[in-house]
Amino acid sequence: MVDFANIAVTLQKQRNRADYHPCQTFTTEQANLWVSNARQAVKWFRDSTVEQRRAFLIMLLFKPR
For the chain, what percent of residues have pLDDT higher than 90? Predict the structure, then answer.
C-alpha cells in the first residue's frame, strides 16, 4: 500500500504540472512510464487486503496530527 500511495502522489504531481503549467512539455517515454506506473498502482491496490484499503482510504480523510 505504501508503494501504491507513493505512485499516486507522484502521478498527481505530474498531472498538476500538465494541467497548470501550459509551457511544460512531456516526452512520449515519460507518458508511457506514467501509464505503466498507474497500471502497477491499480494492480497493487486490487491485490491489497480489505483492511489495507480501508486504512489507506481513512488516512486520506483525516489530516495527520
Answer: 57
